Amino acid sequence: MTTAPPAPPGPSAVPASGDRRRHPARAHLRFFHGPMDCGKSTLALQVDHNHSRQGRHGVLVTQGDRSAVPQISSRVGLRREAVEIDGGTDLRLLVRDRWAAGHRVDYLIVDEAQFLSPAQVDQLAELADESHVDVYAFGLTTDFRARLFPGTQRLLEVADDVQRIQVEVLCWCGLPGLLNARVVDGVMVRSGATVVVADTAPPEPPGEVAGPSPAVRYQVLCRRHHVPGELGPTAAGPGQLALP
User: Fold this and answer.
1) Closest C-alpha to 172, from 117, 110, 237
2) Which carries the bigger pLDDT value, residue 6 or residue 92?
3) Starting at the edge strand that comes first in sequence, how are the strands of the sheet with 216-221 ordered?
4) Collapsing DSSP states into helix, strand and coil, what is residue 125?
5) Active-site pick, 81, 84, 112, 208
6) 158-203 pLDDT, tens digit each
7) Angle, nearest 10°, between helix axes 150-158 and 118-130?
8) Of 191, 111, 214, which is closest to residue 143 (Cα–Cα)?
9) pTM for the full predicted model
10) Do residues 172 and 208 touch, judged by C-beta distance below 8 A?
11) CA pair distance 201, 68, nearest whole angstrom
12) 10-36 burial: b if 16+ Cβ within 10 Å, else e
């Protein structure tokens, strides 16, 4: 009587975490970008969910989230606690400190990656190349002047994989919106600090007394309306299509 050969190992026999510190395998630096409202934070949280449910261990980092608290938050209501970083944070040390404390780090989720310095982007590349940590960065393509953020530019230069997020954002005219406009007290501006954290929130209702600080918001426009600074009708709310 012959004995049947052993069945091939099933999925449960495959290391779910992909422990690349002990079993080195190539890691990647991936960059996902687009205009405001394109769903980059939603995608960041979905990527984290997909990896964590397979037993992998990640760290979420952000800076300047619209909620003004250390978390990654999406306009569709999703949110997760994250590590708040700034321009002086060494992302390599952030991961190595986790390792020193006995925690695994298989991947890094970086939201608001446009705010990274070029040196910090190079740190992400080093984490992927030397420490075998997968890095997923999510950020805006251009600032309110339609120019690349320094962090975005460096990511476009060095990332292994660059993808424009496919969720289409519409200008008020109905054309695809690709450019972010900064609106201060109802007027589009083209000068000022590169980083001013605000959201795409609607303006204050008519008749409401404005605060001492100017009201700042952002609106996504197509190129033909960003160039002349035409914000369109506001009856349906800023940046929304005015339908009959």
Assistant:
1) 237
2) 92
3) 187-189, 179-184, 216-221
4) helix
5) 112
6) 999 999 998 899 999 999 999 999 999 889 998 887 777 666 655 4
7) 30
8) 191
9) 0.78
10) no
11) 14
12) eeeeeeeebbbeeeeeebebbbbbbbb
112 is catalytic: yes
Does residue 218 contact residue 200 with C-beta atoms inside 8 Å?
yes
Question: What beta strand segments (E) does the chain contain?
Answer: 29-34, 58-62, 71-73, 79-81, 83-84, 107-110, 134-140, 161-164, 179-184, 187-189, 216-221
Q: How far apart are CA 64 and CA 114, in angstroms?
A: 10
Question: How far is the C-alpha of 131 from the C-alpha of 141, rounded, in Å?
Answer: 27
Whole-angstrom Cα distance, residue 183 to residue 185? 6
Q: CA-to-CA distance for 118 and 47, rounded, in angstroms?
A: 24
The predicted-structure confidence for 32-85, as pLDDT tens digits, reads as follows 999 998 989 999 999 999 999 999 999 999 987 666 667 787 777 777 889 999
Residue 82 CB neighbour total at 10 angstroms: 24
Cα dihedral 232, 236, 240, 242, rounded to 10, equals -70
Please tell me what DSSP assigns to residue 232.
Answer: -
Strand duo 29-34 + 161-164: pairing: parallel
Question: Which SS3 state, helix, strand or coil, does residue 118 take?
Answer: helix
